[in-house]
Write a structure and sequence with these properties.
By secondary structure, the protein is of the alpha/beta class. Helix content is 24%, strand content 29%. It is globular. The relative contact order is 0.15.
Length: 347
């Protein structure tokens, strides 16, 4: 396959402005592979950068390619990579750590202070035709995992990491707040981890029904349903809503675990309640070593993410894809860089 010298890339120029640019095709370093991008999921963080130009301390100060949930095909390799990998379909774990600091050396590379993560300023992401990644972060996909599912292995890894931090055991009762894409994936992971009862709370009737269709034991409206007596061993917040977090903590049994996934602002937290009930309160920041687990869950059919993808867009339509109001009934949107536009965005 002949690799072009330049590629098309969708670039965030400033808040609310996306433009198509011609960029040089990146060259893989010795330990890297060059991937022709197949599909890229649209994440809430991409939307936030597009709308606000920053997330916390990460500020867009120069043109940036968004997109970090990606799958594709290896089309070239660096000098230190087996050339037999060319042609391999892969899912990309979109981060590069230093591999030398105490966090990396202890296996907690997600906490590396020098982490370079796709689509986090100033590191470019995958809303483009080609990307490079260290070869051990390009995970081969079996034939029964689609390109879309390969891209969804990134948000699925968030759900896996949340369940790992929660320490979910066989027959546990788990409460999940928020039935968006991450909440639904976390729900499926909790069931795959052995949870006996998974209760999902969301204010949206449509999303509650969706949670039930993906195996939730119960789906409740937190505005009308009191969860205080639930006694969950594990509470996972995927909503970022203060009211949901407060209710979830009350619903967690003494000695249980609370895991923050949603991006909440600073909220009041009752230290006496945490201390006297010995609650284990933690959070997740991305993931480590989750791709093999995600691949198994998808290949075995224990988790379904393909059905979560409701809309697709071409590379020229990234700006539209970053406007959730343009597809109000969408759940998960993907970008297909190999095409300019998609005639019918619904899948």
């Amino acid at each position: 396959m002949e690799i072009p010298k330049t590629m098309r890339a969708s670039v965030l120029r400033e808040v609310g402005v996306i433009e198509i640019e011609e960029r040089p095709v990146p060259k893989p370093q010795a330990n890297e592979v060059l991937v022709k991008v197949a599909q890229v999921g649209v994440c809430g963080s991409d939307v936030h950068y597009y709308q606000h130009g920053r997330i916390g301390d990460f500020v867009v100060e120069q043109p940036l390619i968004l997109g970090h949930e990606a799958s594709g095909v290896i089309v070239a390799v660096g000098s230190g990579v087996n050339p037999e990998r060319i042609g391999e379909r892969v899912s990309i774990e979109p981060q590069r750590s230093c591999r030398k600091c105490e966090f990396c050396r202890s296996g907690h590379y997600n906490l590396c202070p020098d982490m370079e993560f796709y689509a986090t300023p100033p590191i470019d992401g995958a809303f483009c035709e080609y990307v490079t990644i260290e070869e051990d972060f390009a995970f081969a996909l079996p034939d029964n995992i689609s390109d879309a599912a390969g891209a969804m292995m990134e948000p699925l890894s968030v759900g896996i990491s949340a369940c790992q931090k929660g320490g979910i055991k066989v027959n546990d009762t788990v409460l999940i707040a928020g039935a968006g894409p991450i909440g639904i994936m976390t729900l499926q992971c909790a069931l795959a981890f052995g949870a006996g009862r998974v209760v999902v709370s969301d204010i949206s009737e449509n999303r509650r029904q969706m949670a039930l269709s993906y195996g939730a034991t119960e789906a409740v409206d937190p505005r009308t349903h009191n969860l205080d007596d639930l006694g969950a061993e594990v509470f996972i917040d995927c909503s970022g809503a203060e009211a949901a977090i407060t209710a979830g903590i009350r619903a967690t049994r003494s000695g249980g675990t609370v895991v923050f996934v949603g991006s909440a602002d600073v909220i009041p937290l009752s230290v006496p309640e945490v201390a006297m009930r010995e609650l284990n309160v933690t959070g997740i920041f991305r993931y480590t070593q989750t791709w093999p687990i995600a691949r198994h869950l998808l290949a075995s059919g224990k988790v379904d993410v393909d059905s979560l993808v409701t809309h697709a867009f071409g590379l020229d339509e990234v700006e539209l894809a970053l406007q959730p109001e343009s597809t109000p009934n969408s759940l998960k949107r993907v970008v297909i860089p190999s095409v300019r536009t998609v005639e019918n965005h619904e899948r």
